[in-house]
Write a structure and sequence with these properties.
By secondary structure, this protein is of the alpha/beta class. The chain is built from twelve helices and 21 strands. Strands 2, 3, 4, 5, 6, 7, 8, 9 and 10 form a nine-stranded parallel sheet that branches. Strands 1, 11, 16, 17, 19, 20 and 21 form a seven-stranded mixed sheet that branches. A three-stranded antiparallel sheet has the order 12-15-18, with no helix packed on it. The protein starts with 9 loop residues before the first strand and ends with a strand. Bound molecules: pyridoxal-5'-phosphate.
Length: 382
């Protein structure tokens, strides 16, 4: 889509002041001079990577984490200057763009190290890398029990600097599985020792994601990698009943009533005719659908806020439209603002509760709000 209207009557509001609040709240909670990498992959979990990163950079963040080099380039082109780690490494052929854009890759295969060192050598530069160790997540990383061979292999590459050693928790959010979290921690400690015994001096040791950083202080190393809690999504990613920093939601999602009509009892609404009116009803149609991230699985389950009252989603959510029953909101009319996620003062709908309703996590909901939904950034400094 080449033409995007910022005036579309379906929009997200990103409160950058709340983002900054969460950053400082987490940083104060973690304390001890521990550095913070803000994870802004996936367009900052759907919140807008460029604007969020610019604000976090102004607030003093130490690093950014992205999933793929393309996301790092977007930040560099927007003028971000702090170090950027590509958490998912890079694909063969992307070595030059890493160097061109000063992006630090995560490495977990010896071939990646070899080719990157060769490209750096041709340019006469030394390139920083962070080595990912798989201590139990089972996704990417050099397996902890195969690390020694890998570390010995690294010694042959002249143009690499091992700037960091990292790993990633699998269940830091579940305190009942603390044994496994502890096991991962021990394996990372051993991995770091292996690097040091082999003459490497990694500057950064990092393991903790949001639940790690908050629930497992011993896992903080000298940097934590925070994603969800910066966006205020602590309600489902942090364990219950622990001490935690104050967090504010950052994203709200709104639309406006596009059409309104009276429907007699006994009529069907929407695809599949999954809803039949039980009473004479007033039905409003909203210009938001599952392409915008308002998930189809909320059909006949979700609810929105219209003029201070909840109104249930009725019938199937389609790609571009959602139907709600406003019979009990007599003031509802075309053009009224509708809150799908947010706090109106009288009522609120959190991302966490939508995630729970759908059997998923808040991250999947915010990540689904895509580019067709214009974002309005609220910045009290503006
Ligand atoms: C996404 C990600 C994070 C951030 O996780 P949160 O739970 O959002 O804090 C940290 N580290 C890595 C490697 C990640 O992929």
């Amino acid at each position: 889509m080449t033409y995007r209207s910022n005036n579309r009557p379906t929009w997200a509001v990103i409160d950058l002041d709340s983002l900054a609040f969460n950053f400082h709240s987490c940083k104060d909670f973690i304390g001890n001079g521990i550095k913070v990498m803000a994870v802004v992959k996936a367009d900052a979990y759907g919140h807008g990577a460029v604007e969020c990163s610019k604000r976090l950079e102004a607030e003093g963040v130490d690093w950014f984490g992205v999933a793929i080099p393309e996301e790092g380039i977007e930040l560099r082109q927007a003028g971000v200057t702090v170090p950027i780690l590509c958490l998912g490494g890079f694909w063969a052929g992307q070595e030059a763009i890493l160097l061109d854009n000063d992006l630090t890759p995560v490495i977990f295969q010896i071939e990646q190290a070899k080719i990157l060192s060769a490209v750096a050598s041709k340019r006469g530069v030394i390139v920083d890398i962070h080595v990912k160790v798989d201590t139990g997540m089972g996704r990417i990383g050099v397996r902890f029990d195969e690390l020694l061979e890998f570390v010995e292999g690294l010694k042959t590459f002249t143009n690499l600097n091992i700037d960091g050693v990292m790993s990633h928790f699998a269940v830091a959010d579940d305190l009942e599985q603390n044994d496994f979290t502890q096991l991962q921690q021990t394996r990372l400690d051993e991995a770091v020792a292996t690097f040091r015994e082999n003459g490497f001096a990694p500057k950064w040791i990092d393991m903790a994601n949001s639940p790690g950083a908050i629930a497992h202080p011993e896992s903080r190393g000298n940097m934590v990698r925070l994603g969800g809690i910066l966006y205020g999504l602590g309600g489902d990613v942090l364990p219950q009943r622990i001490n935690k920093p104050a967090l504010k939601p950052v994203l709200a999602l709104y639309t406006q009533i596009a059409h309104i009509k009276r429907v007699a009892a006994g009529e069907s609404l929407g695809y599949g005719r999954t809803f039949l009116t039980e009473r004479d009803s007033v039905i409003a149609t909203l210009p938001i659908g599952y392409h915008d991230g308002y998930r189809r699985s909320l059909s006949n389950r979700g609810r929105v806020i219209v003029n201070g009252n909840f109104a249930p989603v009725v019938g199937r959510i389609s790609m571009d439209w959602t139907i709600v029953d406003v019979t009990d909101v007599p003031t509802a009319k075309v053009g009224d603002k509708v809150t799908l996620i947010g706090d109106t003062g009288e009522r609120r709908i959190t991302v966490e509760e939508i995630g729970a309703e759908l059997g998923t996590i808040s991250y999947e909901i915010t990540c689904g709000i895509n580019g067709r939904v214009p974002k309005r950034f609220y910045n009290s400094g503006d």
